[in-house]
Structure prediction request, 236 residues.
Amino acid sequence: MATRVLVVDDEVHLVELVSGYLRREGFEARAAHDGPGALDLARSWRPDLVVLDVMLPDLDGFEVCRRLRQFSDAYVLMLTARAEEVDKVVGLSVGADDYITKPFSPRELVARVKAMLRRPRQAVRLDPEIPPPQGVGELIIDRARREVTRRGRPVALTAREFDLLAALAENPGLVFTRDQLLENVWGAAAYDDHVVDVHVANLRKKLEENPSRPRYLQTVRGVGYRLNDRPEVEDQ
Prediction:
């Protein structure tokens, strides 16, 4: 079955151009020209990847991405004419996987799509056997089901958030650098390491009682992050 790519942009000519290039490369491509239409098509068609413009009528791309993440783990490549850092941070915080700035060539976009699809959605393990559910404090991390619970209640994580938590949980207490996490979770160093900070911040909001004083996801200044292996012990 061909990989499904949903192209979302209100510029009809651009959508037709990009869709044509994708089809010539063997992808199945469909188009939407506004946010509500994109979400409806994503629910019914279930694309593997969404090329999503930031500037859309009715709902902007950030809101579309946020709503998409409530029911889909599709890769999201956002298109923006604005290269400001704030756009990147907001996009990543709602679940985008990568960015490309307009103007771009269709060949460049297709190459980015192919590169993104080569990146694993789940952290690569040397041991092919999936371990049993792992307990860390009040958290239970179930890799087989790709589920996390806290005090017995499910925690809604995006695919990338789960992969990041699972990577840290491989060795609780061990400090991982941002570059190590980029390689392990994103599968390449093509991202700015700020993407790690954004996803850690999102995880803290979902897992921590007080995200400003995290018990689980701890920062080791000048190095990176670790999953605390003794979260029941209060910091002194």
In short: The chain has a mean pLDDT of 85. DSSP finds eight helices and twelve strands in the chain. Helices lie at 12-24, 35-45, 61-68, 85-93, 106-118, 159-169, 178-186, 194-207.
